[in-house]
Amino acid sequence: MAWREANFDGIVGPTHNYAGLSYGNVASASNKGDIANPREGALQGLEKAQHLMSLGMTQGVLPPHDRPSLRALRAHGFTGSDREMLAKAWEASPALVANVTSSATMWTANAATISPSADTADGRTHFTPANLAAMYHRSVEWPVTARVLKAIFPEGDRFAHHNALEGGTHMGDEGAANHNRFCADYGDTGVALFVYGRGAFEKADDLIYPGRQTLEASRAVARQHGLTPKKTLFVRQNPAAINAGAFHNDVVAVSNKDVFFYHEDAFVNPDQLERDIKGAMGDIRMHFVRVPRALVPLADAVKSYLFNSQLISTPNREGMTLILPSEVAEMRSTKAYVEELTGSGELISHADYLDVRQSMRNGGGPACLRLRVALSDDDMGAIGANAVLHEGLVSTLQAWVNNHYRDRVTPDDLGDPMLMEESFAALDELTQILKLGSIYDFQQ
After folding, report:
1. Is 287 one of the catalytic residues?
2. Catalytic choice (5, 16, 183, 368)
C-alpha cells in the first residue's frame, strides 16, 4: 500500500493583521502596527500549495477560524447581538478585540500533534489539538481546530481524536511545531522526537522569552497516542535559541524521513541527541545536517527562517527539496549555505524559494503554514471533506479570496463590524466549498 506525507496548509484569514501579539516572536513584534494585506497573504499561501502540487505532493488546506471569536467575547461577559458585543468590547478593551480577532490559525504547524498509524498502539492515526496555552490569542483556537480535524479525518477505524491537554501553561502544548518524526518511509514505524522549552513545575531562570512547550505536555501527548517508549525521545531546546527568537523548535530545525536539518545551537548537546536518535532508529541509518554557527549565525537563521522551511521528498526529483521563504535568498550567510548544501547534491539537492511575506512579517514561514500528516491510500479514501487540493479547487479558492478579502487591514480596523460580517460571510461560503459542515460558532 502506498503512503505519502500530505501537507495541510492554513488559509490566511480575512482578519490577518499585524497586532504584534506574540511575545518572543521577533518578527511579530518588529512589524506591530503595520498595514496587512489579507488578500495577498491568502493568495501567497495558495500559490505555495500550488507549487507543492506541481512537484507531485499531496496538498490540502485547513480553513481560517471565525474572527472575532464571539465565544470568547461572551466568555468575557459581553452580551447582545454580534455587532453590539464587538462595539462594547472595542470600547472596553481594543487589546482584547485584537487578541480574539487574530488570524494566527493560519500557522497550522501549531494546530495539533499527529502520530501516524504505523507508530500507535491501536494502529490508528491520532490527533491532539494543541492547547496553545502560552498566548491568549492562540489559546482560544483549539475547540474549532478539533471540529475541523474531525470533519476532515472522521473518528473511526482509521482516525482517533483527543481533546487538547488541560492544565494551562503548566501543560503548554504547541503542536507539531515542536515535534519531529524520523522513519525510513512514511508507512514504516518511526521515531518521535518531542522538543520542549521547560519543565512544567520548574522555574526556567535561563529563559528570557517563554518556553511555550513543556516536557510534561509532550509526555502526555505521547502517552495518549500510544507511542512506544523506546521509539519516543524528549529533548530540551537550547535556551539560547529561545532567547534569540526561536519560540518554536521549527524555527531552528526541520526533518524529513531519515534526514534531520538543524542549527548547531538548536540543542544544548547535539552530539548526545544524535546518538539517542541513532539508537532509537536501530538498523535504519540517520543523516544529520548540522549547520554551524560559523557559517550561519543563530540570529541570521532566526531572521531569515532558514529552518522554518519544508523539507520534502518529491516523486520526480533525486534528493530532497527545501521549500524556503524568499528572505533566505536575501541574506548573504543563508543564501551561501543553501547554495553549498544543494550543490553537493548528497541529501538535499534542491532549494525552491517562495514569497510568503505576509506570513513572514508576523513570524511564520513555509513550515509554520503547514500541518504534516502521513497517510496511506486507505487513509486518503477515508477523508471526509473536500480539503485535498486539485487545480479546480485551487481556482475556486483563489476566486473566493478575491471576492471576499480586503487588501488592507490595520489593527484599528479590528473594531469595524463590517470586517466581522465580511469575514463571517466568507467563512460560511468556505465551509460549503470544503464541505466541512457547521464548524464555526456563528453557524451553531
Report:
1. no
2. 368
188: CATH: 3.75.10.20
64 prior amide bond cis, ω within 30: no
What is the 3-state composition of the chain as percent helix, strand, coil, each rounded to the nearest 5?
Answer: 40, 20, 40
Answer yes or no: 368 catalytic: yes
> Across the chain, what does the average pLDDT equal?
96
Range of the domain at 150: 3-443
| Candidate list 16, 161, 225, 248, residue with the active-site label | 248
Burial class, 432, CB count within 10 angstroms (exposed 0-12 / middle 13-18 / buried 19+):
exposed
- Percent over 90 (pLDDT), the chain: 94
Is 391 in the active site?
no
Contact call for residues 162 and 115 (beta carbons, < 8 A): no
Structural domains in the chain (count):
1
- Please answer whether residues 107 and 369 qualify as being in contact, where contact means their C-beta atoms are separated by less than 8 angstroms: yes
Percent of the chain predicted with pLDDT > 70: 98
Active-site position among 141, 174, 216, 327: 174
Residue 281 clears pLDDT 90, i.e. is over it: yes
